[in-house]
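#help-structures
NK: newbie question, is this the right format to request a structure? protein is Ring-cleaving dioxygenase MhqO
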Amino acid sequence: MDIKYESIMGSEKFDQGVLGIHHVTAIARDPQKNIDFYTGILGLRLVKITVNFDDPTNYHLYYGDELGRPGSIISFFPLEYVQQGWRGTGQVDTISFSIPENAIEYWINRFKDKGISHRGPTKRFNSEQIITFVDHDGVKLELVASKEAENRKINAWNGGPISIEHAVRGLHSITLTLEGYEKTVSLLTDILGFSKIVNEDNRVRFQIDDTVRGEKVQTTVNSAPSIVDIICHPYSHRGTSGPGTVHHVAWRTSTNENQAEIRNRIVKFGLNVTPVINRVYFNSIYFREPGDVLFEIATDTPGFLVDQESAELGNKLVLPKWLEPKRIYIEKTLPSLKIPSKGNMGPETK
């Protein structure tokens, strides 16, 4: 499939699109099982235990590398009493993590030992080996082995149960499943700074176009995840939100000023965008892209060290200042958790 489209922005160039993937947020059911899987099976660090700021009766759990750097983060809203979600069009279908090429056999053996059903390794675009699996709620995941992962050792968490040689090295990419793609392609290429680089069957790959932005930004998959794949399924069913599905994908921007510029471009593109929302660890704007996937533009700063030291990340429930007066009520509402420590189950959060 070869995508053709007309640029709505003409030949205009811009200094700063997005820098790649900031984080991906999905919906889980049981928060303890979520922690056990992403720390105990995948070996990620639990970097922040907080609440959904829009619904503080539910947790918001963040996982990533040692510091929760942008590009390494996957987060979850655990919703125990809502209907199961179903993957379909208008959603992020797959979240892909990066691993070194020599780690494929390790992960296959690990999944066998842990009883994790998986498929692969399969090949994609002749250069990537893929292991496909789902978590306990049905969120579709991939481990993508490529030589570029060698340049991302900083994203390997060395305090978990997996050696740094084989550890996950942040996010690799996301895959969108859409009924149609033309307007989404225009958004990616004209507004957010992506370029089409390759296609295979009904999968089309886009990556950040650094040449447009000159020397101001050097962001490729070597230093940050900057890949989005689109799969076109015009006759597939629409996805429904709930446990087992992705809630949104957040794209990185370096400063509030760059975020404001991108917001202006998105508005001119004809999409409704929220005002800037303070998420404590980053500032965010939200909008639905033309295929109905919820996108966020999140700033790199201030990051997860704004309210905890590095050694303390993920060791207790942290609330924003405006929710501290309600801490007693919130803690009574939330289920107790056991948190990991060096791959073992540690003290409870409360």
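mod (FA): yep, format's fine, and the tokens are attached above. The longest strand covers residues 55-64.
NK: thank you!
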